[in-house]
Specification:
heterodimer; A: alpha+beta; Beta Polymerase, domain 2; Cytochrome-c3 Hydrogenase, chain B; 3 domains; five-stranded mixed beta sheet; four-stranded mixed beta sheet; 16 strands; B: alpha/beta; five-stranded parallel beta sheet; 6 helices; binds iron/sulfur cluster
């Protein structure tokens, strides 16, 4: 450590100094004072800690933080409906704080950006979270996009309805001829109010809602939600269910990676990869359907276990799928590697610096393609991955090509993982019979799960009546969207679809 | 690449080959869609997909219709980039209040005659999101809907079945 670096403050010590909340697991949550909250924001902006999430409820704000291998939550009561902005020091928190202002009416003090984020001025007043909600003065179309000044700059507005079959969002490009000078994304179009729907919902209904935050990651969300509930109520999940969950998770990862590898190549006008990868994706979905009765495996992971067992003959299905992938995928990888016209589009396009990836705590293939080797299956880690062998591929280049290679290697890892899971699958029950545990107090749980796109955070408080009191779900896209804006700078407008697809951020997961 | 292309030539198309139970059902359905499409339209029907707040699960399965297994275009049904080129709007999601205006404007931009198909349980009546302050709750609350395709999400086969039903609807209304 050099002399100019401030002495690192340990998250552990801050938590110890605060008032620890009972019945919160598996990591600690501490209520801290304004001073420590500001200090925490400084530790985040120094890069000592990484922000995992920032959310609110009626009268307090919470932050989830990772400090090396330590995870924990810090909470700050906001008696006067205000809290010191973290975003003013640490930009990754900015949009999260704008969302807090929209949803809870709490004011992030010192945040320069006063524009609404999820709120487009369309929600009915006074219905949201029973907080008297005042529609912001700006209608959606008056939203003030950030400006870029200079001669011969022009703006290109795109969306919310796009040309392809994709989710809605608005992109505002400022371009100088072909080159993008600035891109600003406007989201919130698919905000469904999921967290509000969860308040007061039974655990069963809330689990279904969690599985519909982002359909492509339904498994990851259902699993993160289940982990959080199980942590709160200290439910033991039968070993077979733990392994089946991993099997489903890896199938989800495979399906998405195949789909996206093909789609990225398609955006570089290479249709053959798209056709082949689309076929592989379809095979994965069909196996998922035959094994678990649903192509996307929605509602198959439930708190306490899994909803559907894997039959003996279905194991064979999984096995043949692996054989097929092992036979066909290497040829496709070779094809990608040897097609100069394709590489010409992907190499050096849409670069994300490793410094940005680290600052934003950017997860998934976007982070790993820019040198951030984070994988929630390793840190904090969860079973059965501690008993499985797999590598976490990392690259430094940070371009479209690197993100594609990370996906390719993750396909290989998932195939190897599924192979191990099928071989070691324990026998026994698949669900803990103890369902809703009723206690006289609230219980809180938190979980971090590695979806195909990155780490999904779920925090939940279960009330004394056994229903959900508050649940927050944070999509990995929150920390990826801003990096897409950075990645496109200086690239040509025509390369945007390619960059965008190589990120494939979730709109629904972000907007909630 | 040449080797792969050659192989595909020798192997024949991957489009719905293996005659297993579910594949057989699809083959039958595919033939039906094909006949109906030719008979009644003689050419193509252009579809514009609009996500009005879906969880993106429905989009994944709509996408699958375009893969080489289902290959929707062989029936003359194709997805287009602009509502101005579309005959049909395929709408997903519970219609969030934030998407309502964009959906209405997309509808207005679509030339008549036009048809609206609501895809998925939440497009039907808001589904699991019904009752939220941020959802209108179902496409029919905003636009006249000609057909609902159920499912969460509907599988590609269910979607194909729905599109067959749509062709019949189209036939009835142009007569
Ligand atoms: S019907 Fe189901 S899959 Fe489709 S958008 Fe709604 S929740 Fe998602």
């Amino acid at each position: 450590m050099t002399e100019t670096t401030p002495a690192a403050i340990k998250l552990r010590d801050v938590i110890r100094a605060g008032r620890q909340v009972e019945n919160h697991s598996p990591w600690a949550r501490a209520v801290i004072n304004h001073e420590d909250w500001r200090q925490a924001a400084a530790s985040l902006s120094d890069g000592q800690w990484t922000l995992l999430g920032l959310w609110a409820e009626r009268d307090q704000v919470h932050m989830a933080i990772i400090d090396g291998g330590d995870l924990g939550l810090l909470s700050l009561p906001c008696e006067d409906k205000r809290f010191p902005s973290v975003g003013q020091l640490h930009p990754p928190a900015m949009r999260l704080e704008r969302a807090i202002r929209d949803l809870w009416g709490l004011e992030p003090e010192g945040l320069a950006d006063t524009r609404p984020w999820l709120d487009h001025g369309k929600w009915p007043p006074a219905t949201f979270n029973d907080v008297a909600h005042e529609a912001p003065p700006l209608a959606a179309r008056d939203y003030a996009f950030l400006t870029a000044e200079g001669e011969s700059l022009h703006q290109i507005p795109v969306g919310p309805v796009h040309a392809g079959i994709i989710e809605p969002g608005h992109f505002r490009f400022t371009a100088n001829g072909e080159a993008v000078v600035r891109l600003e994304v406007r989201l919130g179009y698919v905000h469904k109010g999921i967290e509000r729907l969860m308040q007061g919902a039974s655990i069963e209904r809330a689990a279904m809602l969690a599985g519909r935050v982002s359909g492509d990651s339904t498994l990851a969300y259902a699993l993160a939600f289940a982990h959080a509930i199980e942590a709160a109520h200290r439910i033991d999940v039968p070993p077979r269910a733990v392994w089946l969950r991993a099997l489903m998770s890896e199938l989800e990862r495979l399906a998405n990676h195949f789909g996206d590898i093909g789609a990225v190549c398609n955006d570089a006008a290479f249709a053959m990869m798209h056709a082949q990868c689309g076929h592989l994706r379809e095979q994965v979905l069909r196996v998922a359907d035959r094994c678990f009765g649903h192509r996307l495996m929605m509602d198959r992971v439930v708190p306490g276990g899994v909803e559907r067992d894997l039959q003996r003959d279905s194991e064979q299905e999984v096995h043949s799928l692996l054989v097929q992938i092992r036979k066909r995928f290497p040829e496709l990888v070779e094809l990608y590697d040897n097609t100069a016209s394709l590489q010409d589009r992907t190499v050096g396009t849409g670069i994300v610096s490793s410094a940005l990836a680290r600052q934003y705590g950017c997860g998934g293939y976007v982070g790993r393609a820019s040198g951030r080797a984070f994988d929630a299956r390793r840190t904090p880690g969860y079973p059965p991955y501690d008993r499985l062998q797999f590598e976490v591929p990392v690259r430094e280049d940070g371009d479209v090509d690197a993100r594609l290679w990370i996906r390719i290697h993750e396909v290989e890892q998932s195939v190897a993982l599924i192979d191990q899971i099928i071989r070691q699958l324990p026998r026994g029950s698949i669900r803990d019979p103890a369902q809703t545990v009723r206690t006289s107090q609230a219980h809180e749980g938190v979980a971090l799960v590695e979806g195909f796109r990155g780490d999904v955070l779920v925090w939940v408080r279960i009330g004394a009546d056994g229903n959900i009191e508050r649940c927050h779900l944070r999509d990995p896209s929150w920390f990826q969207w801003p990096l897409l804006e950075a990645a496109i700078e200086g690239n040509i407008v025509a390369d945007f679809p390619l960059c965008n697809k190589s990120f494939n951020c979730s709109y629904s997961g972000h907007d909630l | 690449m040449r080797r792969m292309l050659f192989k595909s030539l020798v192997h024949g198309p991957l489009t719905e080959a293996a005659p297993k139970a579910d594949d057989a059902a699809l083959a039958e359905l595919a033939a039906q869609v094909d006949r109906t499409a030719r008979l009644r339209l003689g050419r193509t029907l252009s579809i514009r997909e609009v996500d009005a707040g879906s969880c993106n699960g429905c989009e994944l399965e709509i996408h699958a219709l375009n893969n080489i297994v289902y290959d929707l275009e062989r029936f003359g049904l194709r997805f287009v980039a602009s509502p101005r080129h579309a005959d049909v709007l395929l709408v997903t999601g519970p219609v969030t209040t934030n998407m309502r205006e964009a959906l209405e404007r997309t509808y207005q931009a679509t030339p008549a005659p036009k048809w609206v198909v609501a895809v998925g349980d939440c497009a039907r009546d808001g589904g699991i999101f019904a009752g939220s302050y941020a959802c209108v709750g179902g496409v029919s609350a905003v636009l006249p809907v000609d057909l609902h395709i159920r499912g969460c999400p509907p599988s590609p086969i269910t979607l194909l079945q729905g599109l067959l039903a749509l062709l019949e609807t189209v036939e009835r209304s142009v007569k």
